[in-house]
Amino acid sequence: MGAGREMSISLDAVRDKNVMQLKKLNTALFPVRYNDKYYSDALSSGDFTKLAYYSDICVGSIACRLEKNEGGSIRAYIMTLGVLAPYRGLGIGSKLLNHVLDLSAKQNISEIYLHVQTNNDDAIAFYKKFGFEITDTIQNYYANITPPDCYVLSKFTGQAPSKK
């Protein structure tokens, strides 16, 4: 039965014509309002930003920003990953995150990281299932939500640029 359920989950690129879908999801999912830079970063990250559809209904998204490290390697920052509450537990968040993990491996991304509010136990447990580890705590990261502190969760892919 699970395999039939999986068939109805699809991912689609975020483009100018459907970026409003991402804005609507973010408004429903997150206590933070995102500015224009967030959306331009999401659009410019190409395949690293996706909308998730369940039976043709837009129910989730992942939005990333690609950053250059001091050493020249690229890392991916997961700005947001969310699935509407009625659709959680169906593998949609896992499919979105696995998409970014697979893409990162193919493109020699050295690290994937994100910020999670310190009291968001569900999100922390979710990311730990995928090999992310808490690498830092930032006090007063969030301005208008409580608690204001966050953890930095990181996953190092071992994909260092080759030195030939």
TrEMBL record:
GO terms for cellular component: NatA complex. It comes from the Eukaryota. GO terms for biological process: mitotic sister chromatid cohesion. Residues 9-158 form the N-acetyltransferase domain. Pfam families: Acetyltransf_1 (PF00583). Gene3D superfamilies: 3.40.630.30. The keyword Methyltransferase does not apply. Keywords: Acyltransferase, Transferase. One of its GO terms (molecular function) is N-acetyltransferase activity. SUPFAM superfamilies: Acyl-CoA N-acyltransferases (Nat) (SSF55729). This is Probable N-acetyltransferase san.
